[in-house]
Design a protein that fits this description.
heterodimer, A: 147 residues, 7 helices, 74% helix, disordered N terminus, B: 761 residues, 5-stranded mixed beta sheet, 23 helices
Amino acid sequence: MMIPLRRAAAMAALLFLAGCSVLQPVPGPRTLPSTLPSTPSENTAVVALLQKSRSQSAAGQWEAASASLERALRIEPRNPALWQKLARVRLDQGDYPQAENLAAKSNSLAGSDQRLRAENWRIIGQSRSKRGDRAGAKAAFERAEGE
Amino acid sequence: MARRHKNRWKFLAVFVLAALLLAAAGTRYLDLAVRERFEGKRFAIPSQVYARALELYPGRKLSTSEMGAELALLGYHETSDAREPGTYRWRGASLEMVTRPVAFGDGRQEAMALRVEFSGSRLSGLFQRGDGKPLDLMRLDPPLIGGIYPGKNEDRVLVKLDQVPQHVIDALIAVEDRRFYTHYGVDPRGIARAIVATASGDGVQGASTLTQQLVKNFYLTADRTLRRKLTEMVMALLLEVHYSKQEILETYFNEVYLGQDGNRAIHGFGLASYFFFDKPLERIGVAEGALLVGMLKGPSQYSPRTQPKRALERRNLVLAQMAQTGSLSEEQLRSEQAAPLGVVSRPPRGTSPYPAFLQLVHRQLQRDYRDEDLRSEGLRIFTTLDPQVQRAAERALNSRLTLLEESRNMKSGLLQGALVVTGTQNAEVQAVVGGRDPRFEGFNRALDAQRPIGSLVKPVVYLTALQQSQRYTLVTRLDDSPLVVTQPGLDDWEPKNNDKEYHGEVPLRRALINSYNVATARLGLALGIPKVMENLRRLGIDRDLPGYASSMLGSNALSPIEVTQVYQTLASGGFRTPLSAIREVLSATGEPLQRYPLKVEQESEGAPVYLLTHALQDVVREGTARSLAEFLPAELAVAGKTGTTDDYRDSWFAGFTGDRLAVVWVGRDDNESTGLSGASGALGVWGEMMAGLDPEPLILPEPENIERVWIDPASGLRSKEGCRDAMELPFIVGSAPTESVPCGSESVGRKIKGLFERMFR
């Protein structure tokens, strides 16, 4: 008599556990989030740093200009406009591989911002033509037009 | 007789000449000796290492308590009016402060009087005091976190005179040598006293000048003969001829003996400041400085740890003398004399609170600087360490490991761990924890413990697949049936799943989400081992790793920091940025020497990384890392991966939020089993730490060549929005399945199959 009872209890426990696992909420269908909050930044600190980097660039102080942009990127690391500005500084400075990589990085964060993408492709195109890669430059400028 | 007389004169002349020559030679010898000693001490100035400078700007996440912690770290003092640089006062949720001047690589920032307002957990307003002008942003001075010292094991914290607070200098002059700036190394009154005392048989004594004390310190013996005293005087005079008062004072501060810790002698104010107060000399207060100066008279006699009462009396006497010489007001005297001793009960181990991070800094510097320059040129090194993150990381590691040991009846202290935290986009290292005792200066597990990474390698395998978008998508069917791999020269390898089951045909994303070993191994072999290893190298491993079939399941050993580099590239969308612990290096005088600019290198197309990250978010949402929900809300959409190695020797978790990446390893130093999986060990450390850092959600920007398609999970074919079980998944344009299943026309069999899949997926 004892044994079947125990067995029944075990069964009940098992059923209960099974019930729990069924009742455990299965995550609902997942919706893909839309793109990142848009640029340009509304953060006054970022705006101030952008301004600072602009005047540093104008004075040919590339390292200071990039330091200001890196500071801004610490505040908004996923702001594609900041990555683009950094790409522009590298282009002006003559560091073409970095200009292209940074523009690509900006593109990767740009979401649906076509103007920003177009400008990135222009940077890539300019950089490629400076490096003597005419075909590559042409392709990049075409992508800029296509955006 | 006359001749003899003449001879005697001649003899005397020779004797005098010889004596003069001898004296000159002696003086010359003393001169050389004292200069050698002095130069040897003087020219090695250690590099100073600083944490990141806290940026203040309206809208920044920063609570009043976090601000308070920063002020404490910087050694700012609370005063009633906050008028001097380095002081502050709170008025409710508003902070009034005056910053210290500081030289950054991009220019000098003068001291500034600020009003900082807080609201909730944010900084809500930043104003210039006085005219009330709002400010866009402002950097505080960076906290000093350590130094790189001359001599590998030399236990000394050298300081430059401009690092010594003025009040400490005032105290020293007031008590030890008030005429220091006017005498020539010896004080005639002191000499007179010494002669009288010696003549009257009281032994050699008398107040030495600071210069004499310094000379005395160059020699280890304390014998007090008249000859020694005279030698000291000559040497003191010579020192003053060669060196300025400033140089002598600086060397004094670095030389004097201030106490004993077992058989370790505490020399110099720099080290003494850590030894007694656990903070750099720059930050000690007036009463604390007076305590150190008071101890010069007799370090053991007036030790605040063993003789607190005498030390307090002596300190208050020093303070009184400072008031006498006018460097303290009556009011200051009263408040400083009322202050407690402020000595930390146990001397700290080592002089940096963050030795593990400092090791990383040192290694990065060694790529660009000669070691002797680092140890002697007084460089100022601005690093990326975020003390708030570091604190959260240390606490989480220690508290979780203690909890695990208690709940699993393990010996206390058996578990070890390591942890690295970076910014996802710029790869700046914000924290490094090398073990449970964060002040331990020895073996640094974060940098040097090489352990098999287990399933942490899987994202690399799946990325390699997803990069071939015509062959692999998130819903491609993988084969998770029994597998035996025969390799020439090696034993047959038969990978098993953790649940000891085989799962037949599984969608690719499911195999990653549930971390199926067999399906992954088969996938890796199909892709080609060299191809996966090449990807691992591109993502961040700069050394050659042998590639075996078992490498597809993480048999290769990597250090936590190496794993961090790999995940860094994933977290930043396929762009590799070398991990960096340093922002810039300035010379001792504040000239910028070197900047470490942000560099990115695209190592993978963005779309495959996007797909992979999407699946890694599902690992946390519904897969092997779902217990992270105990720590963080689902809305953060964290991406992560657990890792467990054979016999539960290593427990790993690597993951990232919108703003931070962290890699955690938990295991034992003897490499025995801990019984912990990635989820039961490392994941908890990760979760607890991140929960304390208010993370940003991981919102992935969608690459332009990504489209979203509704998929029927049972068949892996196209479905439609609103159909039963249909889920929206991302695909690289043109790679999604073309065949569809009809909506709602499910057979009973499929319905049941679907039900089971929902239950057990």
